[in-house]
Write a structure and sequence with these properties.
Number of strands of chain A: 0
Distance between the termini of chain A: 44 Å
Helix content of chain B: 10-25%
Distance between the termini of chain B: 52 Å
Largest sheet of chain A: none
Strand content of chain A: under 5%
Shape of chain B: elongated
Structural class of chain B: alpha+beta
Strand order of the largest sheet of chain B: 6-7-8-3-9-10
Number of helices of chain B: 8
Number of strands of chain B: 20
Strand content of chain B: 25-35%
Bound molecules: adenosine-5'-triphosphate, magnesium ion
Oligomer: heterodimer
Order of helices and strands of chain B: EEEHEEEHHHEHEHEEHHEEEEEEEEEE
Chain lengths: ~280, ~375
């Protein structure tokens, strides 16, 4: 009755050619995505899946992936948090430069990163030579996997945490100082709790990226089954050698892990105190 | 002694904000810094608290030079314009923050926080988070938080600007009460002159990076030293005037404000500062103009009423004569003009006009001279 004319117009609006085009393209895109998923789940039967999961090589690759990626997550936290803190709260010469350096591992093709790591840690490499004296081998070992994953995935954590620290209003930090709090006290009671959503999200992203890392890892660690064969490398090796069953089985497990991290990203901490950190 | 600021200069990106500014805030004083938006009030408070580094100049707190002291070493409470409460801590923990940061023991903290919760009347809400509070409650929490560690001084940056009129008046009263109870030195920033008048022991007017006048509210209002101060505190009529002749007790001027199209002659009392100068700036407080149906001889002007704005118990009436606008404030009961185009007499006594030179060069405030009942409608 007393609807405004605008609303009436909206209700009786005709679909234009443009609307139809938009809808069509959207449908095609989602059909593509869903089809890809379906293929993965219909390629093998449940029986085949279970059989693959009891294969020692598949189990070993899962173990190696989890082991290395979790170590990477811990290392990322301990090195990445100070970096994020400095980059978001301190002003110093060269900050902009360091800031853009963080993006480098993200845009660098993983194979190129792997190549560089291979040269650095190889028998004749700068660090490889030094470590060689102590009989420590990075290349073709799980240490190599960790190095590759750390290089490629830590920037995701740093960027996320940096943003969430930078989102804390400057007045709050200033208020803490005027109340007599030292920088460490402010860090412990403000920065850490207020950026915990960012930390959690960053860790989840880093973990997913580490689990899914293939290019750099395969360059540095090769693919020794049972020793340096991660899940992604396993998928590639099995698919190439025609063992589709094993490849798909590992693929589905990997997908499961990805969902877990997606869940962490979505839920985060429920309580937000009316702010979105 | 409270806080002393000496010759402070501060620029942002080559743009000077504070220029050689000096200011003394006495111990236990309620000092209000009043100034328009964007003129460096927050910057000044930030420099006092150590949150902003001045380019030049010194800050003394209790006779100690604190330029090199970090904010956490200055013992100055700060109430931010937007509260800046810690969103993840309860009201109680917000207030206790400064005490915990100083490592005061738990039992003492409970006692102190309880005391300040009571002072700001938030006992019932101590378990709430900031997002569960109203603007006024947040404000009171911020005040309690800044007071709880017993700072040497409390700096407040437009703390009431986001509140409605009632809430603002209530917290204003509470603030006065709290200051009386704690005897804390307060430096309070605002751009609202009525708020300043209600709170201050002394007011500093900040303009163009300098303090233009420091005085008690009454003196700022009735003895402004510059045209800016006069207009900013609501002494709306400031005229450029040219001395025509001195008649002993009184002096006759021709108004020569740029917007004036005709000739207007006014008469003022003679002040010592008139001697030897032909140009003067004269100030006329709007409440000293009487609006009447009849002329009162001297200093009476038949104006066209162009604007009538009701405000509480008074009307703010703007009249226009030969391009010059005159602003009057009249009690509602004494004003009965319906048509905006109606003509009316604005009249004021020679006592009402005064030069812009502060109290020192003036006699005591004159009484309203146009208060003869026959002029009131
Ligand atoms: N960090 C900064 N960088 C550059 N310019 C700044 C900075 N802080 C303040 N300014 C400028 O300095 C001037 C004074 O700012 P300030 O915040 O002190 O004003 P204010 O008097 O508190 O204004 P308001 O009443 O609006 O709060 C403004 O012109 C502002 O643009
Ligand atoms: Mg300000």
């Amino acid at each position: 009755m007393d609807k405004s004319p605008k609303v009436d117009q909206m209700e009786t609006k005709q679909f234009t050619l443009f609307d139809i085009l938009l809808t069509l393209l959207t449908v095609i895109f989602f059909a593509f995505i869903i089809l890809v998923f379906l293929m993965l789940f219909t390629a093998v039967s449940a029986n085949q899946l279970l059989r693959q999961l009891s294969s020692p090589l598949v189990l070993a690759s899962i173990r190696i992936s989890l082991q290395t990626s979790l170590i990477v997550v811990c290392l990322t936290f301990f090195f990445g948090f100070p970096v994020a803190y400095l980059l978001s709260l301190k002003t110093f010469k060269g900050r902009e430069f360091l800031d853009s350096l963080i993006d480098l591992p993200i845009v660098l093709p993983p194979l190129v990163s792997g190549l560089a790591l291979l040269i650095l840690f190889g028998g004749d490499g700068m660090i490889g030579k030094i470590l060689g004296h102590w009989d420590i081998r990075i290349i073709f070992s799980q240490k190599g996997i960790i190095c590759a994953q750390l290089f490629v995935s830590a920037p995701f954590f740093i960027k996320t945490v940096k943003e969430s620290i930078a989102a804390i209003p400057k007045e709050i930090i200033a208020a803490s100082a005027t109340l007599g709090a030292s920088s460490f006290y402010t860090f412990r009671r403000l920065i850490l709790p207020l950026s915990k959503n960012g930390i959690l999200a960053g860790l989840a992203m880093t973990w997913t990226r580490a689990m899914g890392e293939f290019g750099a890892t395969s360059m540095v660690a090769g693919c020794i089954p049972g020793q340096t064969e991660t899940m992604t490398i396993g998928i590639y090796m099995n698919a190439m050698s025609g063992n589709l069953e094993a490849a798909v089985a590992v693929g589905i497990i990997l997908l499961g892990f990805s969902f877990i991290s997606l869940l962490i990203l979505k839920i985060r901490f429920k309580r937000s105190y009316g702010y979105h950190y | 002694m409270g806080i002393i600021i000496k010759n402070i200069c501060k620029s942002f990106a080559k743009q000077a904000v504070l220029e050689n500014l000096s200011l003394t805030v006495g111990k236990g004083e309620f000092h209000v810094i009043l100034g328009p938006s964007g003129e460096g009030k927050s910057t000044l408070l930030g420099i006092m608290a150590g949150l902003i580094q001045p380019d030049y100049g010194d800050v003394y707190i209790r006779h100690q030079r604190v330029n090199k002291f970090a904010p956490e070493k200055r013992k100055i409470g700060f109430v931010f314009q937007n509260h800046a409460l810690f969103p993840h801590l309860t009201v109680y923990e917000n207030i206790a923050y400064g005490l915990r940061a100083r490592g005061i023991n738990g039992k003492k903290i409970i006692k102190i926080v309880a005391h300040y919760l009571k002072l700001v009347k938030l006992q019932e809400l101590h378990n709430r988070y900031p997002f569960q509070l109203s603007g006024g409650q947040k404000q009171r929490t911020a005040i309690a938080r800044a007071l709880a560690f017993e700072p040497d001084a409390l700096l407040m940056d437009e703390p009431l600007s986001h509140l409605d009129v009632l809430e603002r008046e209530r917290i204003r009263d509470e603030l006065k009460r709290i200051q009386a109870a704690t005897q804390v030195t307060i430096c309070y920033v605002t751009h609202d002159h009525s708020e300043a008048a209600a709170l201050a022991d002394r007011i500093s007017i900040l303009h163009r990076g300098r303090i233009e006048q420091v005085e008690q509210p009454e003196d700022i209002f009735y003895h402004p030293k510059t045209a800016f101060v006069a207009e900013f505190v609501g002494a709306d009529n400031v005229f450029n005037a040219e001395l025509v002749r001195a008649n002993g007790d009184t002096t006759t001027f021709n108004l020569n404000s740029p917007e004036l199209t005709g000739q207007l002659e006014i008469e003022a009392r003679t002040y010592p500062v008139f001697a030897g100068k032909t140009e003067q700036k004269l100030c006329l407080h709007p409440e000293k103009i009487v609006v009447s149906h009849t002329s009162n001889g001297k200093n009476s002007f038949l104006v066209r009423i162009i604007d009538v704005v009701p405000q509480g118990a008074v009307f703010k009436v703007t009249g226009e004569i030969s391009g010059l606008k005159l602003r009057a404030v009249v009690p509602k009961a004494a004003f009965k003009i319906n048509s905006h185009t109606e003509k009316s007499w604005f009249c004021f006594s020679p006592d009402a006009l005064h030069p812009l030179c502060g109290r020192s060069c003036r006699a005591a405030i004159s009484q309203r001279a146009c208060n003869n009942p026959k002029f009131l409608l």
